[in-house]
Amino acid sequence: MTDLTLMEKIVSLAKRRGFVFPGSEIYGGLAGTFDYGPYGVLLKENVQQLWLQMFRDDRDDMYSVDATILMNPKIWEASGHVAGFSDPLVECEKCKRRFRADHLDNPTTCPECGGVLGEARQFNMMFKTHAGAMEDDSAVVYLRPETAGGIFANFKNVMDSLHPKLPFGIAQIGKAFRNEIAPRDFIFRLRELSQMEVEYFVSPKDWAQAFEEWRKVLHLFATAIGLPSNSVHELEIPPEELAHYSKRTIDFEFDYPFGRKELWGLAYRTDFDLSAHEKGSGVSLSYLDEETKEKYVPHVIEPSLGVDRTILAILTSAYREDALGGEVRTYLALAPKVAPVKAMVSPLLKNKPELVAKAREVREILKKVHPAIAWDDNGNIGKRYRRQDEIGTPFCVTIDFDTLGETPEHKDTVTLRHRDSGEQERLSIVEVAERIATAIR
To answer: Does the model's pTM come out above 0.90?
Structure first.
């Protein structure tokens, strides 16, 4: 079941309200690339900060690295990416269009012109470039296809500098690059993407317990960012379909408008990665347990999350339409923790200096709760509310003449409007600050 109309609405809103723009749009675009706009940047930062909090900061066994995008190509040879990071490619003999064979309903007929498709061949998705002045094979490097490689390459550095005891993990947020044959579905399948990954190193005997712990964290994170539990599904990958490095993998899938697709992954990678890099580099990546004196290559649990797919899942979950006030209203029911703006402050009338001054005073008070407090005095109050609804602002705070004391019992109170219901209540400025603080806690 798909809802492409919903997808079109999400893409339209994302551009109209400054969340996501087509990459290089003024020059006709570039397939598989998108730029995050002002509100998209804030949403993305909030998601990443929440991930860091839940996956790193709330734990005592996690560390971070920020590895380079360009690395020694031997890293990708050892990991198997140079030889095996491929998708099946077919080309139409008539129109010469190219497609991923595993994405076609009919692998023999071109979906564009009806021509005959040639035999499938493997297409390596890594972007290749050259480092330095020479452009020969000795200077070949790759844009990293995943962030995990930099974590494994720095395992020994973390061990030598911090001396952590197992189990412990290394987290990284960063860019990855994949030369997708057919990027599609907005920001779901991109050529330049962001990842949030953890490599959690454990004793071989403890992998199952660690796997279950991270499984729970992924579900908690889904709830925290506002994904409904009935839209997130676990798919246990059968043994015969597991990647060569994995002994157990669960794909966390989400009900996107274009169908149920992979959102995140949780994999037990055994000791494949460190053993491969130990062999490729000739450097020992073993761990010595000081208590048991046992020496072994640690095994790895990997929770891997795509930032862009997460953002699309959030927008899909949050998109709403209703008939509030007798007209169709579009809004994003974003979880306050990830909403780009936490509240908007507005004077009822912008041509009344006393209202404007008081509204700015209130905004400064609320910014002490959180800096993402917007100001809007453009157009009538109803239009301001609609704009904030579409960017997912949970609260709108309006300063009127009662705030100034024209009605004594209402002095220093404001109107607080709730995004989802449209309901309004009269509260003191202190009470409003407490409401916002509670919502984003």
So the answer is: yes
